[in-house]
């Protein structure tokens, strides 16, 4: 299990726009379609990564807890499905249903969105404010498969609570750690 850290996109960066396929509905969803009134969480996930599987239930809890407070959530899978067929759009649909995702799980076939966000791993989390400026990026919490630390979403929850309560974000933001995004071979 490779351990790849986040690239930690610069705070204040404007969220790159996208329009991506939602395999569950066969519709395209844009950044603005799914953005929240108070802020927007963009998550890079995939189906097969043990790090994502480890936190999937907590991701769903966080989305359900904070969507009602005005936050939008969007998950994106950017992996090369030719070499990693377990991340195919068909299986994305199955994953979204299995975990009862309450947010769109979008397919980044060209991998351009992952490049635009400088995403490096799954899971990787980005929180944008109401103006779609980056205010948090990095890990969900300190838990990793096998490290014995319970999954509680502490870091992302704290960032969301800070927005909700008009508090300043913590300056110490830890990178996420997970499976590296499976990039397509260069032509």
From TrEMBL:
Pfam families from the UniProt entry: AhpC-TSA
Protein name, as recorded: Peroxiredoxin
Domain Thioredoxin residue range list: 9-165
Segments forming a coiled coil: none
Gene Ontology MF terms: antioxidant activity; oxidoreductase activity
Signal peptide span: none
Listed InterPro entries: AhpC/TSA, PRX-like1, Thioredoxin-like_sf, Thioredoxin_domain
Taxonomy, superkingdom: Bacteria
Protein's organism: Leeuwenhoekiella marinoflava
């Amino acid at each position: 299990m490779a351990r790849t850290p986040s690239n930690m996109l610069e705070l204040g960066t404007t969220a790159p726009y996208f329009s991506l396929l939602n395999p569950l509905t066969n519709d395209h969803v844009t950044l603005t379609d799914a953005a929240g009134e108070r802020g927007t969480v963009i998550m890079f996930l995939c189906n097969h990564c043990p790090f994502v599987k480890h936190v999937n239930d907590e991701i769903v809890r966080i989305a359900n807890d904070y969507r009602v407070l005005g936050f939008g959530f969007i998950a994106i899978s950017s992996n090369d499905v030719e070499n990693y067929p377990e991340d195919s759009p068909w299986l994305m649909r199955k994953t979204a249903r299995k975990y009862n995702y309450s947010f769109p799980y979008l397919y980044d076939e060209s991998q351009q969105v992952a490049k635009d966000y400088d995403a490096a791993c799954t899971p990787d989390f980005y929180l944008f404010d109401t103006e779609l400026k980056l205010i948090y990026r990095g890990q969900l919490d300190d838990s990793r498969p096998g490290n014995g630390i319970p999954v509680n979403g502490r870091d992302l929850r704290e960032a969301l609570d800070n927005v909700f309560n008009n508090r300043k974000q913590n300056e110490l933001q830890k990178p996420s750690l997970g499976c590296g995004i499976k990039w397509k071979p260069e032509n």
